[in-house]
Amino acid sequence: MGEIRVLISGTCPPHLNSNYVLLREITRGFQQLDGHLGRLDVQLVPLDKLLPTVSDWRPTYTLLVGGLALETIPLAMVSHRCKLHGSRLAFWSLEDPYEFDCVLQQGHWFDLICTSDHASSCFYPGDWRVEHLPLASPERPMPATGELLRASARWMFCGVPFVNRLRWIAALVGACPQGLLIGPGWPAYAPPTAVHQGRIAPGVLHQLYAVQPLTLYLGRDQDLANSIGVIPSTPGPRLFECAGGGGRQLVCGSGLEAALYYEPELEMLPAATLGEAIGWLEWAEHHPRELLAIGERAWRRTQAEHLYRHRASRLLTWLREL
């Protein structure tokens, strides 16, 4: 088998993409497969270099990653250029179902669509090639956990304050105020709840996963273009990233699908209700050693199943089937 060339790009310019680090991790996942699935050459290019790179480099596969709501990508031209040079065009949709209408309007340009949300995959046209592909974690070593008992906050959450998250956090702060909130737009809760108004670097966040006793996983409830009202089912990247950094997670709300990736009470703590969440927070305070074991088991599960090289391998398998 000859060399396989994989060209990866986002669907908007890097300066508009707050999740551009995901593209780098996905690219690294493909690069790690070089030599395992034959000779593999992988390039990540910004959107403005996509069309000329397709013409000059002539990739075997072209993969676009992100959402389609911004309409910053000339899909008709990209599809034509890929066909002209024999490159299969795939799309990894990271914004289902929040921008689902946009994908339905423009998805016909792709040979393969991978959606990060399982519920959304059920609503695509039947004659499209659509596969479910959740996000994952970068490959990280298991951190030393001796600092866990010295963490000042008992729980942490990092993310945007969507309405459903505000409801959960307001209730948790009332019952267990020793927490740390990170992200722009959060209310100024009274001490001992600490609030950092702003974004932090991914490396800093991964360090916090390692030392905070519990990280809350809260999905998002926000629809930009979801007229048929698809309810998301698959957890986002933070679930995998925290576990991949050896963190211990309390999965709050309707996280049933999380149990497909991590074993409840062994690799993460499930809380369908506020009462269950408060109960787990109280349990964690008195069982630090058991809590450490949960993080260690979650890390091992991630290394075995939920790294970006695992997702890249599956995506390449589907592309080869086209």
**Range of helix content:** 25-40%
What structural class do you assign from the helix and strand content?
alpha/beta
Span between termini: 16 Å
Q: Which stretches of 5+ consecutive residues score pLDDT under 50?
A: none
Strand order of the largest sheet: 2-1-3-4-5-6
How many DSSP-defined strands?
12
Globular, elongated, flat, extended or rod-shaped: what is the shape? globular
| Main sheet record | 6 strands, parallel
Mean pLDDT: 93
What is the string of SSEs from the N terminus onward?
EHEHEHEHEHEEHEEHEHEEHHH
Strand % is 15-25%
For the CA atoms, what is the radius of gyration? Answer: 20 Å
The number of helical runs is: 11
For the structure shown, list the relevant keywords.
322 residues; alpha/beta; 6-stranded parallel β-sheet; globular
